[in-house]
């Protein structure tokens, strides 16, 4: 697979999809923001298609007031709002209930991403997303997403395996079968399609059929991506960035996910039952840069609301 060809063809025209397969694969994409980055965007309708799902990342130390204000603003703009609920950042059931009440009461939130949170020491009673689910406080939500790790997670499986991760996914699969909420797995970003395909096929073989929303790092400087990849524990696919870094002629060029997307889109086209349902972008090089890149490749489904 052409893992390093991340430039668009020279004759490609802005606004034109790279291929029908890529256009179809990008349809219904989601994107992630933080309150501080959202504050820099004057109007999200200038950047994103109407109804785009926007995750709001909750970084440790972020005030819930800022999170809710961002959710309220996005909801008023016509977007589907999905805030993070990081278990290890939440002190107790009372705080969780307060957060949920604020999101639902002030911003009409009905979707949530539940995750451990990546914090070494829990702030209180919760250590993982299963404990959040067990509170019953998310009953009535229309959609619940959980975290996935195509290349493993050493915070959960210290030995580098996946025994604990797989056990957690089986538990969540069982919950999904008795829940009224639509559930999906939103994953960490990766850079190589091969391990992602192998991981998705493994889940299917294990009877885990939750739809996968594959994490994709948006266009960014190579140094920026390497920094985030190391911090987030990206696994073997980090070698794609490291190989690129050895080519001094490409160090100053933006690193774009065209080949990664194209490989997955082609696999999906050949295998319609493949478990990836949607793409979720981490705009590490900026949301405007990511939105422009996506618009140029997603056809009509990538047109911002104010231009539709």
UniProtKB/TrEMBL annotation:
<dbReference type="InterPro" id="IPR029041">
    <property type="entry name" value="FAD-linked_oxidoreductase-like"/>
</dbReference>
<keyword id="KW-0560">Oxidoreductase</keyword>
<protein>
    <submittedName>
        <fullName>Methylenetetrahydrofolate reductase (NADPH)</fullName>
    </submittedName>
</protein>
